[in-house]
Design a protein that fits this description.
The chain contains 3 helices and 43 strands. The chain is mainly beta and 766 residues long. Strands 32, 34, 37, 38 and 39 form a 5-stranded mixed sheet that branches. A 4-stranded mixed sheet has the order 1-7-6-3. The longest helix is centred in the N-terminal third of the chain and has 47 residues, at 2-48. The chain starts with a helix and ends with a strand. This is Cadherin 11, type 2, OB-cadherin (osteoblast). Residues 1-19 form the signal peptide.
Length: 766
């Protein structure tokens, strides 16, 4: 590759030298042409006698070329500039400006030679635009207008092709035909596609043959072998090369990897790894339990590998069923109904496994299914006893005596041992213990008379337990119906009173009565109504049996009077015509009411008729109002009296001297002033600092205190002078004072003991 690059560099350098020689001769021609044009111009000026100043370009620019990636020791000569105004005396100075001027491109200001001082890369920049100008060296004034020229970088094949999007991943279905397109890869080359063959690419496959191929011009990868099987090999690593220079020697190349995966198609049928499967199931398993699993293998993936299972023949197709486990793709065999070891001990089934999704392109490769044989052995288990029926129904007469046989249940041990069975009734099914069962024979009997009206059905369970073994038990439902007996008398359906107007007309229907019976009514059985024998001769009401379990009550007299009798009782006998017949006597209550002319009931009470006839409703209201007012006045008066309370303490203002006992004993006269103390008489208790309370009862009785030298004096005034007044002397020697208290009143008793002549006298002060 580097040999080709060196050859290209050499050729490009040779071309540049030739171009430089041509460009160098061009300014000379331009200069000669310019000098010639200037000479002619001067001649015309001389002839015409005037000078014309016209700006004229002294050179014609061509495009300059420089080869890229030049690595020689000296700068590359790009070209030479020369102006006609340059006389060669050194006064003309060349100036270069623009892209890369002074850094990449430099100019000799005397000769006008332009050199490239750095290595150029066309892929970075393909051309440069520069501006050249000739100025006076001394004054720097322009001698010529500035002109632009272009330096193009000439391309060499220095960039290999690149796959920008690699590595690549592709998928193609297995079993594809030869030439099936897999994908297209594309490489890019940074070299100039318009110059030579540097960017003309050719594709080839370096790895992946003989399975795949690639088109040289387009890069399309295709299958090269038929019937590539994913199950044999799923992935392929392919290496693709892109080479420039049209694929010739000396061109640069680049490679990329392509990982190709074969996708699955349904090209494989399911296959059982063995032809016969052996399974077993215990006879105590219930419906829906799993017996076993089997799997047909299918190497395909996804829906192409889905397998469904079914029974196609066998003697257990009604006993077993098979389903598909979508997660494991296995066929699951389950019990459809229980098996019995004593009845059948082995089953044979034929199972078919088939694909659910078929590919039409490969149907001819079929069939896409396989079969296998499954043998199921039934294992013996210690089973509980089995009743001969799933449930039992019996009937028993109502009121049958205890010990009456209701029925019999029967169970047996289905195992080979055939152990005996014991029966019992679980108490939770017969809480009140109406029935009993024989532990050995299974005979159900009553334990007491049954009442159909209380409980018409008895639903119990009977348990059968195997004696020996694992004592397993089983239960059966027993429904016992109590047959009805006519043991209840009929009675009125309702017990409402019948209201009848006082002015009712004879023969009027006042009520239709009906009856009910707790017993069952047989077909065409009805109740018979009649008036009880003790009331057959009543003159007020009559009864008509309607023969449809109802009776009509009629009035037989004209009018009633509530003042005379307001309630009538009519006994009616009801017979149910059963076997045996039952009857009862029910009393019908009939109340007489006051009605208006339209037979509308106004009142059924008798109280208004015992009031005086002359009083109206308004008068009664007035009387009641007066009574209420009088009662209010009395209550108010009593309340006021209770608010006025007596003082609790006997104050000094209550002078005892207002109560004076008068008696005819002589005293000491006016001179006898020491015989008594008037303060003590006014308030005997106050003398000792004690004031009695009137609102409480004293806890202790105060003892009698003897008051010495105390007399009650009665002054008798006469018409005499004061000094002639008759005085009652102090003839009493002792006065006894007693005070008695209670919760309601206070009594003060004075006992006065006078002289021998006077008897004991007392006064009560209340």
């Amino acid at each position: 590759m580097w040999e080709g690059l060196g050859l290209q560099v050499f050729l490009m350098c040779l071309g540049a030298v030739l171009c430089s020689a041509v460009d160098a001769s061009a300014p000379l021609e331009h200069s000669h042409r310019h000098r010639l044009s200037l000479h002619r111009h001067r001649e015309r000026t001389g002839k015409e006698g005037q000078v014309l100043h016209r700006s004229k370009r002294g050179w014609v620019w061509n495009q300059f070329f420089v080869i890229e990636e030049y690595t020689g020791p000296d700068p590359v000569l790009v070209g030479r500039l020369h102006s006609d105004v340059d006389a060669g005396d050194g006064n003309c100075k060349y100036i270069l400006s623009g892209e890369g001027a002074g850094t990449i491109f430099v100019i000799d200001d005397k000769t006008g030679n332009i050199h490239a001082t750095k290595t150029l890369d066309r892929e970075e920049q393909a051309q440069y635009t520069l501006t050249a100008q000739a100025v006076d060296r001394a004054t720097n004034k322009p001698l010529e207008p500035p002109s632009e020229f272009i330096v193009k970088v000439q391309d060499i094949n220095d960039n290999p092709p690149e796959f920008l999007h690699g590595p690549y991943y592709a998928r193609v279905p297995e079993m594809s035909n030869v030439g099936t397109s897999v994908m297209q890869v594309t490489a890019t080359d940074a070299d100039d596609p318009t110059y030579g063959n540097s960017a003309r690419l050719v594709y080839s496959i370096l790895q992946g043959q003989p399975y795949f191929s690639v088109e040289p011009q387009t890069g399309i990868i295709r299958t090269a072998l038929p019937n590539m099987d994913r199950e044999a090999r799923q992935e392929y690593d392919v290496v693709i090369q892109a080479k420039d220079m049209g694929g010739h020697m000396g061109g640069l190349s680049g490679t990329t990897e392509v990982k190709i995966t074969l996708t699955d198609v349904n090209d494989n049928p399911p296959k059982f790894p063995q032809s016969v499967y052996a399974m077993s199931v215990s006879e105590d398993k219930v419906s829906g339990e799993e017996v076993g699993r089997l799997k047909a293998k299918d190497p395909d993936l996804g829906e192409n590998g889905l397998v469904s299972y079914r029974f196609i023949e066998g003697d257990g197709m009604t006993v077993f069923e098979i389903t598909t486990d979508t997660d494991t793709r296995e066929g699951v065999i389950k019990l459809r109904k229980p098996v019995d070891f004593e009845t059948k001990r082995a089953y044979t089934l034929r199972v078919e496994a088939s694909n659910t999704h078929l590919d039409p392109r490969f149907i001819a490769w079929g069939p896409y299914k396989d079969t296998a044989t499954v043998k199921v052995m039934v294992e013996d288990a210690d089973e509980p006893p089995a009743f001969m029926a799933t449930s039992y129904s019996f009937e028993v007469e109502e009121n049958a005596r205890d010990g009456t046989v209701v029925g019999r249940v029967h169970a047996k041990d289905t195992d080979v041992a055939n152990n005996p069975v014991r029966y019992m009734i679980p108490r939770y099914t017969d809480v009140e213990q109406f029935f009993s069962v024989g532990p050995e024979d299974g005979i159900i009997k009553t334990t007491r008379p049954l009442d159909r009206e209380t409980l018409p059905w008895h639903n119990i369970s009977v348990s059968a337990t195997e004696i020996g073994g694992h004592h397993q038990d089983t239960k059966v439902r027993v429904n016992i119906k109590v047959k009805d007996m006519n043991d209840n008398a009929p009675e009125f359906a309702t017990q409402n009173e019948i209201l009848v107007c006082e002015n009712v007309s004879p023969g009027k229907l006042i009520e239709t009565v009906s009856a009910v019976d707790k017993d069952e009514m047989v077909h065409r059985q009805y109740f018979h109504f009649s008036i009880a024998p003790e009331a057959v001769n009543n003159q007020n009401f009559s009864l008509k049996d309607n023969r449809d379990s109802t009776a009509s009550i009629y009035v037989t007299r004209r009018g009633f009077s509530r003042m005379t009798q307001d309630v009538y009782f009519l006994p009616i006998e009801i017979n149910d015509n059963g076997n045996p017949p039952m009857s009862s006597t029910n009393t019908l209550t009939i109340r007489v009411c006051s009605c208006d002319s339209k037979d509308t009931i106004l009142s059924c009470n008798v109280e208004p008729y015992i009031l005086p006839a002359g009083l109206s409703t308004g008068a009664l209201i007035a009387i009641l109002a007066c009574i209420v007012i009088l009662l209010a006045i009395v209550v108010l008066f009593v309340a006021l009296r209770r608010q006025k309370k007596e003082p609790l303490i006997l104050f000094e203002e209550e002078d005892i001297r207002e109560n004076i006992i008068t008696y005819d004993d002589e005293g000491g006269g006016e001179e006898d002033t020491e015989a008594f103390d008037i303060a003590t008489l006014q308030n005997p208790d106050g003398a000792n600092g004690f004031l009695p309370r009137k609102d409480i009862k004293p806890e202790l009785q105060y003892p009698m205190r003897r008051i010495k030298n105390c007399c009650l004096i009665s002054m008798k005034k006469t018409m005499r002078k004061p000094q002639q007044q008759t005085e009652t002397g102090r003839s009493c020697s002792t006065s006894i004072f007693l005070r008695k208290m209670n919760s309601t009143k206070t009594e003060t008793v004075f006992f006065h003991k006078s002289s021998e002549k006077s008897p004991l006298s007392a006064q009560f002060h209340q």
